[in-house]
Design goal:
With 76 residues, this protein is α+β, with helices and mostly antiparallel strands. It has one domain. The chain is 58% helix and 13% strand. It has a two-stranded antiparallel sheet with strand order 1-2. Strand 1 and strand 2 form a beta hairpin. It is rod-shaped and about 80 Å long. InterPro entries: Cell_synthase_bac.
Length: 76
């Protein structure tokens, strides 16, 4: 069930939205973006994939820097 009114009949349950939608409360900036993109799942998937690729690239660079430092210490 969702919306303002739920009508229960023998044939089933119907949920209806009556009036304008309004929101109460505060969302952090990242949840606001997530909420705005929830109506566009393809964009959400694209942004998630880009974020994963960027995170993987940063981790790869960090591990590469760490390994170079470790190997240069062994040479000395």
């Amino acid at each position: 069930m969702f919306g303002s009114v739920a009508v229960i009949r023998e044939s089933g349950v119907n949920s209806l939205r009556v009036g304008d939608i309004y929101y109460v409360g505060h969302l952090p900036w990242f949840e606001r973006i997530w909420f705005a993109l929830s109506n566009h799942p393809i964009l959400l998937a694209i942004f998630a994939a880009i974020r994963i690729v960027l995170l993987a690239w940063v981790l790869w660079r960090m591990l590469r820097i760490i390994s170079r430092r470790r190997l240069s210490l062994d040479d000395e």
